[in-house]
Amino acid sequence: MFAQFIPDGAPVTPIQHLSPDGVLAAGVTPSMSDDQLLAGLRLMMLTRVFDTKAMSLQRQGRFGTFSQVTGQEASIVGSASALDPLIDWVVPQYRELPALLRQGLPLSRFMLYFMGNLAGSRIPDGVNILPIQISLAAQIPQAVGLAWGLQMQQTGGVVVVYFGDGASSEGDFHEACNLAGVVKAPVVFMLSNNGWAISTPRHKQSAASSLASRAIGYGFPGVVVDGNDLLAVHAVTAEAVARARSGHGPTLIESVTYRMGPHNTADDPTRYVDAAALESWKPLDPIVRVQRHLASRRLWDDDRRQTVEAELSAEVDAALVIARAEPAPTASQLFDHVYADPPSTLQRQRAARIGATS
Amino acid sequence: MSTVTEPVVGTATMNMVEAIRDALTLEMARDERVVVLGEDVGVLGGVFRATDGLQQRFGERRVIDTPLAEGVIIGASVGLAISGLIPVPELQFLGFGHQAFHQIGQQVARFRFRSQGRHPMPITIRSPFGGGVRTPELHSDAFEALYTNTPGLKVVAPADAYDAKGMLLAAIRDPDPVLFLEPLRGYRLVSGEVPTGDYTVALGRSKVVREGEHVTVIAYSAAVQLCTKAADVLAAEHGISTHVVDVRSLVPLDVEGIVAAVEHTGRVVIVHEAPLTSGFGAELAATIQREAFYSLEAPIERVTAPDTPYPLGGTEDFYVPQVDDIVRGVLNALER
Measured between CB atoms, which of B66, B74, B252 is closest to A344? Predict the structure, then answer.
């Protein structure tokens, strides 16, 4: 009878602190102060404003292919808010704009990357984030190595690495988790389960009842959290970060959320997303949830919302002005930063290419 | 063409494994940021003993036995480098390099570019490669050309103990990632006098290992020794004087040195263990025809493995170029 490790298949109830109506669960002490909560809300709203504006710009041909965060703001902001940007690192995939902003990346620089300008690939010194990763899951071993290196050098730093339910099917995810468990790397694996990998639904990625349950195979804890609940995501991540910082190793957090838009601006989700499922997630909006909670405590109202939205809109417009002021790309940029000391063969190619295009 | 950076104390006879170990020991003692990681590199000292004794001397924190997973050995090295360390990962055999190719090709090689200079990758990936020692299946392939077509990466393949030590020290100190290819066949077979002190051999320089007048044979790694043996046969049996060039560094490539060697005789034979089509010999031939066209007196010959999968050991000698194959290639180049 092979019954030692039979999966139970029992549904896991994600940890929730705020109900969709914004009511704090009984017995829960919020892990964020009011100021932190307001700052988190502002960051979520900024992301939403950016998504809307950038989508419009993309449709006008003034912005490149990019992936909106819409619907997943609490998952990203809640986790990033648990970090100390001075010593901790964020290793992103490509749908984590607010985490990058909180670590200190100027919005204009993020925009440049998606406008196809190499200047957008240069993250300013002192901003503890790695470049956006397009080759899915490749960032996970790198995050483990970074965390391991920080640990070896006793910096006290922790790394949060972001990826999705799709990327968790990659071999790199497994190899990285496995090594992290062995060396007790101070890393938090933030798995944003948004239901989709482009058109492939969650149930086609894995037969596991929860993706967090895989953690047991690596010898560290896994936890499932309501990804549309800013407070719960923050609390769970803060605990994982504290665990990592105190030498107890990694944690896998599965943040259950939903991608409310397309995979990216080139995608047409009407071909595969069930309209009823999408509708069922609309009342669970992570921004509205926090606004309801703050309103119930008289810290938020419609006037305030309008004021903040106007400020954020101006902020995005200002960033766009800065991004557009960046010098246009040049052919010589192809050759910069390939080698510290370019081989003579490459120097010749550079001379030929620049001569041909100037 | 070797650059001696510091006074050399003395010399000792070392084979290639010993020279590599000497370089690792010296650099780990000199620079505490250097960490060695890979499968079986610690307690065992590596399956070829290239890292023997390092863990005892430098501890488990700096000489690390990893899980059996090439992808994360290289992927984690990226992160270790970003954290400020200088990783020297070992791929136990280049034949297993495909398991890590996504991290090498898309990540290690282009991280400097992807970060626009913020994150250089001072990583030296050591890996034995090539055949001739009857390994089990899938160990012995010469996959160097996969990596020379990967911008951002340097690829070097020394053929003797002196270069192995000096180039490994240069590679570890290089701010860019280097794939350091070690000839399986040469590990214990090839010995020589090696300075016991600190010296580097600049990457990007070829060297003439034998002077000759009639034909220029160009090779790297284990094939260099075959070429000198072939030169002996050619001299004894055919009265042919062979100029043998060790490329040493595929990227960066010493175009000037190779062109000078070609112009010296006007006839060229290129030898490598990798298959013919798109092998690095094609790049060498293209470079030579562009840079030394008017000095060529015959078509360029290539002596390589056929375009077939690397076979099992019993068939290996039909696959890997042998001395006789090189002799025949030279006779072709001389139109004899």
Answer: B252
Whether residue B118 and residue A123 make contact (CB cut-off 8 A), yes or no, is yes
**Domain that includes residue A354, residue range:** 331-358
B80 to chain A, any CB pair closer than 8 A? The answer is yes
Residue A67 and residue A212 in one domain: yes
Q: How far apart (Å, rounded) are the C-alpha atoms in residues B42 and B56?
A: 8
Q: What is the full per-residue pLDDT of chain A (358 aa) written as tens digits?
A: 677 877 777 788 999 999 999 999 999 999 999 999 999 999 999 999 999 999 999 999 999 999 999 999 999 999 999 999 999 999 999 999 999 999 999 999 999 999 999 999 999 999 999 999 999 999 999 999 999 999 999 999 999 999 999 999 999 999 999 999 999 999 999 999 999 999 999 999 999 989 999 999 999 999 999 999 999 999 999 999 999 999 999 999 999 999 999 999 999 999 999 999 999 999 999 999 999 999 999 999 999 999 999 999 999 999 999 999 999 999 999 999 999 999 999 999 999 998 755 4
For residue B115, give how far its alpha carbon lies from the nearest alpha carbon of chain A (Å). 5
Query: What CATH number is given to the structural domain containing A141?
Result: 3.40.50.970
Instruction: Name the minimum distance, in Å, from the CA of A164 to any CA of chain B.
Output: 18
What stretches of chain B show up as alpha helix (H) in DSSP? Answer: 16-30, 54-58, 70-82, 101-103, 111-114, 144-148, 161-173, 186-189, 222-238, 255-265, 280-291, 316-319, 323-333
* Residue A174 a catalytic site member: no
CB atoms within 10 A of CB B210: 17
The correct CATH number of B12-195 out of 3.10.300.10, 3.40.50.970, 3.40.50.1480, 3.30.930.10 is: 3.40.50.970
Nearest to B158 by CA among B326, B23, B7, B5: B23
What is the token pair recorded at B88?
A: 């020297």
- Find the CB nearest B80 among A125, A145, A171: A145
Query: Within an 8 Å CB–CB cutoff, is residue B276 touching chain A?
Result: no
Contact B204, A346 (CB under 8 A): no
Same domain, A269 and A320: yes
- Please answer yes or no on whether A340 and B175 come within 8 Å at the CB atom: yes
The ipTM (two decimal places) reads 0.96
Q: Is A162 a catalytic residue?
A: no
Q: CB contact, 8 Å: B253 with chain A?
A: yes
Same domain, A347 and A283: no
**For B71, which of A123, A141, A150 is closest by C-beta distance?**
A141
